[in-house]
Design goal:
elongated, mainly alpha, 67 residues
Length: 67
């Protein structure tokens, strides 16, 4: 397991404390949650970019999907 030491300035520490209180978690859990969300966003963007490269993508209306 890796261990990281992070330095925060006064503003960053204030944001960290706000988020820890908002999500009711400790610093480690908050940073892990943020890490996974950024990773997920990156993977989602890769999927979107691949879709957008298609020459003739197929789209469906909401009604078609719900059938």
């Amino acid at each position: 397991m890796g261990v990281a030491s992070i330095r925060f300035n006064k503003n960053e520490q204030g944001i960290l404390n706000f988020l820890k209180n908002h999500y009711h978690c400790d610093t480690s859990s908050l940073l892990k949650k943020s890490l996974w969300e950024l990773f997920e966003d990156t993977k989602d963007n890769e999927i979107i970019e691949e879709f957008e490269k298609k020459k003739n993508p197929e789209f469906f209306s909401f009604e078609e999907i719900m059938k």
